[in-house]
């Protein structure tokens, strides 16, 4: 099975900050990497698919990069509603494992 | 509007069984694979199982292989997760999600809580 490791596990930042979350796969996954946002008590929401493609309806401040084993999610200017937990997920081979999550908190 | 509505969760004793259902609407159900993802209290997301558009191909996490089965009835726009030999560690909110493209999950249900306890 492919293991996904995110860093950091938690992050404190301020409104307007630029933040980057990284995700590393334990083996090659091409660009089969997705990012989700989850707010407390809510279902996850797809942000980025195939490493770099912005899901329809998602604000332009989110971007993704990477290929192979190393990936990043960048939020260019934090808004209050962006404080949530973020998960990466590989969809290269089953089981389509998630990373452990990165909790983004207000500083 | 795409909607996914889960049902069937509840309290079950260890060793017991439960069947979750997820009914989709607002899209052509038979054109999409479907997936179940769970989240234990205070924990992260865990991919559980997936099924192809026709139901011919199914996939499972190691943690549920042999205990859980996934199926679908495209005439009812519904996917099922049959859970047998339940354990305390299966306690979680179970989400169904629609698969699109390269198996990304673009729509999610609201979740159904399964509690395994005596």
Report on the architecture of this protein:
- The complex is a heterodimer of chains A (107) and B (118).
- With 107 residues, chain A is an all-beta fold.
- Helix content of chain A is 0%, strand content 48%.
- In chain A, the strands form two sheets. A six-stranded mixed beta sheet of chain A has the order 2-10-9-4-5-6, with no helix packed on it.
- The mean pLDDT of chain B is 98.
- Chain B is mainly β and 118 residues long.
- Helices cover 0% and strands 53% of the residues of chain B.
- Chain B contains no helices and eleven strands.
- In chain B, strand 5 (45-51) and strand 6 form a beta hairpin.
Question: Main traits of this protein?
Answer:
heterodimer, A: 107 residues, mainly beta, four-stranded antiparallel beta sheet, 10 strands, B: 118 residues, globular
Number of strands of chain B: 11
Uncertain spans of chain A: none
* N-to-C span of chain A: 36 Å
Q: How would you classify the quaternary structure?
A: heterodimer
> Would you tell me the overall average pLDDT of chain B?
98
Radius of gyration of chain B: 13 Å
Provide a quick synopsis of the model.
The complex is a heterodimer of chains A (107) and B (118). Chain A is built from no helices and 10 strands.
How is the secondary structure organized here?
The complex is a heterodimer of chains A (107) and B (118).
Chain A: E1 4-7, E2 10-13, E3 19-25, E4 33-38, E5 45-49, E6 53-54, E7 62-67, E8 70-75, E9 85-90, E10 102-106
Parallel strand pairs in A: 2-10
Antiparallel strand pairs in A: 1-3, 3-8, 4-5, 4-9, 5-6, 7-8, 9-10
Chain B: E1 3-7, E2 10-12, E3 18-25, E4 34-39, E5 45-51, E6 58-60, E7 68-73, E8 78-83, E9 92-100, E10 104-108, E11 112-116
Parallel strand pairs in B: 2-11
Antiparallel strand pairs in B: 1-3, 3-8, 4-5, 4-9, 5-6, 7-8, 9-10, 9-11
């Amino acid at each position: 099975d492919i293991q996904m490791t995110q860093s950091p596990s938690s992050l404190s930042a301020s409104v307007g900050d630029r933040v980057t979350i990284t995700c590393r796969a334990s083996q090659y996954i091409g660009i089969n990497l997705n990012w989700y946002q989850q707010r407390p008590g809510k279902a996850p929401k797809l942000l980025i698919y195939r490493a770099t493609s912005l899901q329809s309806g998602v604000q332009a401040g989110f971007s993704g990069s990477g290929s192979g084993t190393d990936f990043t999610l960048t939020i260019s200017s934090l808004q209050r509603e962006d404080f949530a937990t973020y998960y990466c997920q590989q969809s290269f081979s089953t089981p389509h494992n998630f990373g452990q999550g990165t909790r983004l908190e207000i500083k | 509007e795409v909607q996914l509505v889960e049902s069937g969760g509840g309290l079950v004793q260890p060793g017991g069984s439960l069947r979750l259902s997820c009914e989709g609407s607002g899209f052509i159900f038979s054109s999409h694979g479907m997936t179940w993802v769970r989240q234990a209290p205070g924990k992260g997301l865990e991919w559980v199982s997936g099924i192809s558009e026709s139901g011919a191909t199914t996939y499972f996490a190691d943690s549920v292989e042999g205990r859980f089965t996934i199926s679908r009835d495209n005439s009812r726009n519904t996917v099922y997760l049959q859970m047998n030999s339940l354990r305390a560690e299966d306690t979680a909110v179970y989400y169904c999600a629609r698969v699109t493209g390269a198996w990304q999950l673009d729509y999610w249900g609201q979740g159904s809580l399964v509690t395994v306890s005596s």
